[in-house]
Amino acid sequence: MDTFADRFDGGCKWWAAAIEEAQEGRWVRDAVERQVIKDIGAATNPLHGGRMAPFTEDSWHVRIGRIANWAGVLRLAARSGGWVLQPVAGRIPSKPAGMTELLSGIYAVGEQGEIWMRQLPKGELPPEGEIAKAEGFLTGPGSVEDLELFFYD
Fold first, then answer.
1. The pTM is what?
2. How far apart are CA 94 and CA 125, in angstroms?
3. What are phi and psi of 9, to 5 degrees?
4. CA distances from 132 to 54, 78, 113 (A)
């Protein structure tokens, strides 16, 4: 089954695998990969004003929308570089990990935001803890928001 926990755990593993490859020097980003990561950062500005996640003072719509925006940005990023996003829930990332694994890992969390966004008009609210985990993964110190800092190339 493809639950939030499956997506989140898989996303963390795939993201971490790609970052480890980069930090160990086994994946050195090329010029296109560097630019795509900068563009992702620009397109996913969370507009949180420096507040730390979870953003409990924001409406559900804003919180879920902030997460869901990542999915569209990552689909565009993958298309721009010819990378194919992979399902991550219950799967092990390829070795060596690189841009496909990085984008797929982050996408799993963003796509969950899209699922939540479709449920919201029906009055189906996700558990607060799941929203907070997704927000923390994407936003704040040491999160995907700081993606550029994880690379030494």
1. 0.94
2. 34
3. -60, -45
4. 5, 26, 12
- Of 128, 80, 86, 133, the closest CA to residue 107 belongs to 86
Token pair belonging to 117: 């966004």
pLDDT tens digits for 1-35?
589 999 999 999 999 999 999 999 999 999 999 99
How many Cβ atoms from other residues are within 10 Å of residue 65's Cβ? Answer: 16
Which among 93, 72, 95 is positioned nearest to 9, based on CA atoms? 93
Q: Token digits for 153?
A: 């190339």
CB 75 within 8 A of CB 106: no
Query: Residue 151 carries which side chain, given as an amino acid letter?
Result: F
74 touches 41 (CB < 8 A): no
What is the token pair recorded at 12? Answer: 């963390």
Q: Which helix (H) or strand (E) element contains residue 115?
A: helix 99-119
CA angle, corner 68, sides to 67 and 72, nearest 5?
125
